[in-house]
Amino acid sequence: MDDKFLTLDEVSKYLKIPKSTLYKLTERKEIPSVKIGKQLRFRKSSLDKWLFAKEGAVTTEGVSSPKEDEICSPKTPQKHILLVDDDELVLKTISKFLKNYNYEVTSACSGEEALEKSQTKDFDLIITDVRMPGIDGIETIKRIRVLNQQHHKPTPKEIIITAYIDTEAQRAAEGLGVSDYIYKPFIAGEFIKSVKEKIAFNINLN
Asked: 3-state SS of the chain: helix, strand, coil percent to 5?
């Protein structure tokens, strides 16, 4: 596509995300857009810059493709990760990254959806954003813990990711015993190290 103004339908197909999500992003002014008359339009060059920044939620600094000894053997049961974030592009980026290491990833775009999925599936690790509409990441962790206790299921380890400096949320996380509070964009090598450590810790407990 040349540098031109795109329609909502064209952007939806280009980014492979629903139009309803695009509406929400424009309402929150999280995606570059302009009004031409009464029509919503998106400049291609601005869109590409925004997309690049979003995909930069995981930077590749200090990391290359997974080595053979870093990827689970086919004989090793896959570890299940619940990934929670209200930004669909961040979900796609991090999910794709984790799947490269042979983790099974279930995505949820809200705390409510994460709770629903926790009722039907067991997870080895929960990775959640903090600021989300409805139930935030801290409350999501609390409710999933209660849910697992009620059903006598082991509680997975948790990692919190966020793009905002929020000392109150970080203190709340520490109060829950969540030591991994990672700011986006984060370095892929450090992130996957944290993921492996949390899952290994759970394996040793079970």
From this structure: 45, 20, 35
Under DSSP, the state recorded for 79 is P
**Cβ partners under 8 Å of residue 201, min gap 6:** 157
Q: Supply the pLDDT for residue 38.
A: 79
Place of tokens 């609390």: 142
How far, CA to CA in Å, does 178 sit from each of 15, 18, 72, 100, 116?
34, 33, 25, 25, 22
Look-up of token digits 């998106």:
42
Residue 121 and residue 144 in contact, taking contact as beta carbons nearer than 8 Å: no
Per-residue pLDDT, 46: 81
- Return the domain boundaries, the chain: 5-55, 68-205
Distance separating alpha carbons of residues 37 and 113, to the nearest angstrom: 37
CATH number of 68-205: 3.40.50.2300
In angstroms, rounded to a whole number, what is the distance separating the alpha carbons of residues 74 and 19?
Answer: 38
Q: What is the pTM of this model?
A: 0.66
CATH code of the region 5-55:
3.90.105
Regions of the chain where pLDDT drops below 70: 1-3, 16, 51-77, 165, 201-206
Residue 160: Cβ within 10 Å count = 25
Which CA distances in Å does 119 have to 101, 143, 149?
25, 11, 11
